[in-house]
Amino acid sequence: MSQHDILVLYYSRHGATRDLARLIAEGIESVPGVNARLRTVPPVSSVCEATEAPVPSEGSPYVEYADLQQCIGLALGSPTRFGNMAAPMKYFWDGSASEWMNGALIGKPACVFTSTGSMHGGQESTLLTMMIPLLHHGMVILGLPYSEPELMTTSTGGSPYGVTHLSHADGSAPISVMEQRLAKAQGKRLAQIALRLIPA
Question: What's the first-to-final CA gap in the chain, in angstroms?
Answer without folding.
Answer: 15
